[in-house]
Automatic annotation (TrEMBL):
GO molecular function: aminoacyltransferase activity
Domain of life: Bacteria
Descriptive protein name: Cyclodipeptide synthase
Similarity-based family: Belongs to the CDPS family.
Species whose genome carries this gene: Actinomadura logoneensis
Keywords noted in UniProt: Transferase
Keyword set includes Transferase: yes
UniProt cross-references to InterPro entries, sorted A to Z: CDPS (IPR030903), CDPS_sf (IPR038622)
Length: 238
């Protein structure tokens, strides 16, 4: 992946697009999507504010999606009964939502541009529902995609189990959290009604990369993905 900056060489963050088409969509900078959840890794409020401040000037529109219903699968994988899993997932999501809202305010972005949503908002959206069903079928039918999904779920669960190895049943349940997030890597424009979109990942996501290669998934040509890094952390150009 080649590093690029959005709209200004002085940008505090750089993006590493996954494909050439992703690079073109980064240059268009019409929409950026940032997901906040276990698979994206921790984002401190200070860094999140800086990221949103940059994104608010680099892209025409920015939306943040906070995992909530998808977290239920993580808590159930940890052995919690459904009711407790929902309660804990909602509690964590509410804290994350408040953190993102404060980060938006600290970024100095006008209130009318501060877009943050819970994932559950889109459960009944027809495009999201169709893409989630497609992702579920793909993970079931594509051995490579299923293996990478299980690896990603295992990595997430280890953070809760203090590096103890989750068993297969836990990992199998945990992967459903990732399936619920996959539509945002397939066709965000179709869900949010934007011309094109780039989904940002704070760290490399092998599952996201594999989506482009899977014969069981269709990534919209209007959907891009990129890894975002602080400029000081970017590899020097040759």
């Amino acid at each position: 992946m080649q590093e690029t900056a959005a709209r200004t060489v002085a940008a505090p963050f750089t993006m590493a697009p996954y494909t050439e088409n992703c690079a073109r969509l980064c240059e268009r900078a019409e929409h950026l999507l940032l997901r906040v959840g276990p698979e994206t890794g921790p984002l401190g409020r200070e860094r999140l504010s800086a990221l949103l401040r940059w994104a608010g000037t680099a892209f025409d529109r920015v939306d943040v999606i906070v995992a909530d219903v998808s977290l239920v699968h993580v808590h159930q994988a940890l052995g919690q009964p459904p009711e407790k899993a929902r309660k804990n997932a909602n509690h964590r999501a509410a804290k994350a939502f408040r953190r993102v809202s404060r980060a938006w305010e600290e970024a100095g972005v006008p209130p009318q541009r501060q877009r943050v949503h819970l994932l559950s908002t889109f459960l009944d959206h027809p495009v999201y529902a169709r893409l989630r069903a497609e992702a579920q079928r793909a993970v079931a039918e594509d051995p490579a995609l299923r293996e990478v999904s299980l690896q990603a779920a295992r990595k997430v669960l280890r953070t809760y189990l203090k590096d103890r190895e989750p068993d297969f049943a836990q990992v199998d349940e945990g992967k459903n959290h990732l399936i619920a997030e996959m539509p945002w890597c397939l066709d965000t424009p179709g869900i949010l009604g934007v011309p094109s979109s780039v989904t940002l990942h704070p760290q490399r996501q092998p599952l996201a990369e594999l989506m482009f290669a899977s014969p069981h998934l269709t990534v919209s040509p209007r959907q891009g993905q990129a890894v975002v890094r602080p400029r000081f952390a970017a590899a020097p150009s040759s």
